[in-house]
Write a structure and sequence with these properties.
Protein name (chain A): Transport permease protein
Shape of chain B: globular
Order of helices and strands of chain B: EEEHEEHEHHHEHEHEEHEHEEHEHH
Pfam family, one (chain A): ABC2_membrane
Number of strands of chain A: 0
Distance between the termini of chain B: 26 Å
Oligomer: heterodimer
Strand content of chain B: 25-35%
Structural class of chain A: mainly alpha
Largest sheet of chain A: none
Organism (chain A): Streptomyces triculaminicus
Number of helices of chain A: 11
Largest interface: A-B, 37 and 45 residues
Strand order of the largest sheet of chain B: 6-7-8-3-9-10
Shape of chain A: elongated
CATH class of the largest domain in chain B: Alpha Beta
Distance between the termini of chain A: 37 Å
Radius of gyration of chain B: 23 Å
Number of strands of chain B: 14
Number of helices of chain B: 12
Strand content of chain A: under 5%
Keywords (chain A): Antibiotic resistance, Cell membrane, Membrane, Transmembrane, Transmembrane helix, Transport
Number of domains of chain A: 1
CATH superfamily of the largest domain in chain B: P-loop containing nucleotide triphosphate hydrolases
Helix content of chain B: 25-40%
Radius of gyration of chain A: 21 Å
Order of helices and strands of chain A: HHHHHHHHHHH
Number of domains of chain B: 2
Family (chain A): Belongs to the ABC-2 integral membrane protein family.
Chain lengths: 274, 342
């Protein structure tokens, strides 16, 4: 074929090969599109975001609600529970990121990405962007279900949005942890196993499901430093009123700390994966 | 195909000097030197575990060499990986496309990652689909493609950015002969358009078809190199193959040639399964003499041809072992695929 039949979109100039911010955003967009098309091709992968919130809210409200708040007063527990479940959901979605990454990164397409003139972190950031989107879907369903069951917010919608945003920020930071795990361990099963070991104590050793005041002293001490407690408390106070500042700043500090430590490690791991 | 002429001018698109890569105790690359001249195809030939894939992974910035230097289009693989990635394309043994995405979506994504505008990326994707005969399958997910279609999509993906240097790591491993020919045709076309190609292969026929020059590697070292015909000439002369029209003449024909005692011809052997008589020759005069003799004796012939020694024989001659030698070296994870496919 003659050169003329192929139009000539030229590659960007090779200014020392640095990738500018705008190009980076474009790359992340193209890669996020890939992740969304994957969901479109495999809608079952949305089950955890769509079905799990419904199961959790029904299960906990009606199994524990009666004991916690007294038979017939499940609604009071619901008001306590939903902000906590919002915090938990971030963790569950983040865990799925770890197994997904492990599986995805065994495929040949990752070699292609790593031989292309794109920033290597863009592949990981794109994944997180899409997963935060999945978290939003899960949270919307959780809240919708909550309102249907009688959840009441005593603050303003703005406060509710702040609570949602806070759980997104924290969830995104956790995704780096699980991406790191996903890149470090050999199989998706190992990632899942390890994730459960991390998740279970953090989820149940927190104020997500029950107030910590009645826990033994040592456990209560643990829950104070458990970022999930901070997040659950912050969301609760944002949605139902109460002192927000301490738990919110603690949550943001955790999110920042986790991201600062694990994100560079994850990118380095991805870069050096052979 | 016709004899490939090596473009006379132009420097080296790829220059590798003393490249070393260890995986634990294993020396996957043990001081490799090679050059690929601009606009030519270098075939890197070797058995499983010879270090071929490791070489390609070093040259495409996927792994860092432990020692030595490698430059591609003038860029150093260790110090200038970002620039280097702008000028290379890679097609591996396994499809490096997203299986859940359609062919078009894959190509569009790669166009966007290469900084094409949305419009250009779409146009380029359609162009490539057309060129690689994938237009009909454009909307289907790549996982439903046949092996050959996947490989073509992979080649298309590698060509979106118009790389000046293309690495093909065993591009036809596991493909059936017809599909293999399709891939070869595409590669020849790319070379015709000026792309420099570094091709690794275990298939002698593939190297003969595509490569201008050959580098034979074994256990991480280069053990022979040169033009394909040069390498063969080192190993020995040609074989004249004569096919009598009547298979019943086979043994009589062989006997006559042997008995004639033509100058420098040791003897002829009949190959009954192929229905041919093989006569080893070293010169064109001998070829003429044999053909003349057969005419004199009134044999009716159905075919006559000369063959250079096969690359299998070349490999045996330069390494002292068969090419199917069991691999001792770990040539990265992709070897698992080869063994299954082989």
């Amino acid at each position: 074929m003659s050169a003329a039949t192929v139009s000539a979109p030229t590659a960007a100039p090779a200014h020392e090969g640095r990738i500018g911010l705008r190009a980076n955003v474009r790359h992340i967009g193209a890669l996020a599109r890939r992740n969304m098309l994957q969901i479109k091709a495999d809608p079952e992968s949305m089950f955890d975001a769509v079905i799990m919130p419904i199961i959790f809210i029904l299960l906990f409200t009606y199994v524990f609600g009666g004991s916690m708040a007294g038979k017939g007063h499940e609604q009071e527990y619901l008001n306590y529970l939903v902000p906590g479940l919002m915090a938990m959901q971030g963790m569950n979605i983040a865990m799925a990121v770890g197994t997904g990454v492990n599986d995805d990164f065994k495929k040949g397409v990752m070699d292609r990405f790593r031989t292309m003139p794109i920033s290597r972190s863009s592949v990981l950031v794109a994944k997180i962007v899409v997963e935060v989107g999945r978290m939003l879907v899960a949270t919307a369903i959780l809240l919708g279900m909550g309102f249907a069951l009688g959840l009441s917010i005593t603050t303003t919608p703005l406060h509710l949005l702040a609570a949602v945003a806070l759980s997104m920020v924290f969830g995104a930071s956790l995704m780096w942890v699980f991406i790191l795990l996903g890149l470090s361990l050999k199989t998706p099963q190992a990632v899942q196993g390890m994730a459960m070991i991390i998740l279970m104590p953090l989820q149940f050793g927190s104020s997500i499901f029950a107030p910590t005041a009645k826990m033994p002293g040592w456990l209560e001490g643990f829950t104070k430093y458990n970022p999930l407690s901070n997040l659950a408390d912050a969301s609760r106070h944002l949605m139902r009123g109460g002192p927000v500042a301490h738990s919110m700043w603690m949550t943001l500090a955790w999110a920042a700390g986790i991201t600062l430590v694990t994100a560079p490690l994850a990118v380095a791991k991805f870069r050096n994966k052979t | 195909m016709t004899r490939k002429d090596i473009p006379a001018r132009g420097g080296n698109a790829v220059e590798v000097r003393g490249l070393v890569k260890h995986f634990g105790e294993t020396k996957a690359l043990d001081g490799v030197d090679l050059d690929v001249r601009e606009g030519t195809v270098l075939g890197v030939l070797g058995p499983n575990g010879a270090g071929k894939t490791t070489l390609v992974r070093c040259l495409s910035t996927l792994i860092r060499p432990d020692a030595g230097t490698a430059r591609v289009a003038g860029y150093d693989v260790v110090r200038q990986p970002r620039q280097l990635r702008r000028v290379i394309g890679l097609t591996g043994q396994y499809a490096s496309v997203d299986e859940k995405l359609s062919g078009r979506e894959n190509l569009y994504m790669i166009g966007r990652l290469l900084d094409l505008s949305r419009k250009d990326a779409r146009r380029r994707a359609d162009e490539m689909l057309e060129r690689f005969s994938l237009t009909e399958a454009a909307k289907r997910p790549a996982m439903n493609y046949s092996g050959g279609m996947r490989r073509r999509l992979d080649l298309a993906a590698s060509m979106i950015g118009r790389p000046s240097v293309l690495y093909l790591d065993e591009p036809t491993t596991g493909l059936d002969p017809r599909t293999r020919n399709e891939v070869w045709e595409e590669v020849q076309r790319m070379v015709g358009e000026g792309t420099t190609v570094l091709l690794t292969t275990q298939y002698m026929e593939e190297a003969e078809q595509l490569a201008h020059e050959l580098t034979v590697v074994d256990r991480g070292r280069v053990i022979a190199g040169g033009r394909v015909d040069e390498l063969k000439a080192k190993v020995g002369g040609r074989t004249l193959q004569v096919r009598p029209a009547d298979p019943a003449d086979l043994h009589r024909l062989a006997a006559e040639v042997t008995r004639a005692g033509l100058d420098g011809i040791a003897g002829a052997t009949a190959d009954a399964t192929e229905g041919v008589v093989n006569v080893p020759i070293v010169s064109d005069e001998q070829l003429t003499a044999v053909v003349g003799l057969l005419g004199e004796r009134g044999f009716a012939l159905a075919g006559i041809s000369t063959h250079l020694p096969s690359l299998d024989e070349v490999f045996l001659a330069v390494t002292g072992q068969k090419t199917s030698a069991p691999s001792e070296a770990q040539d990265t994870r992709t070897d698992e695929f080869q063994e299954v496919a082989a």
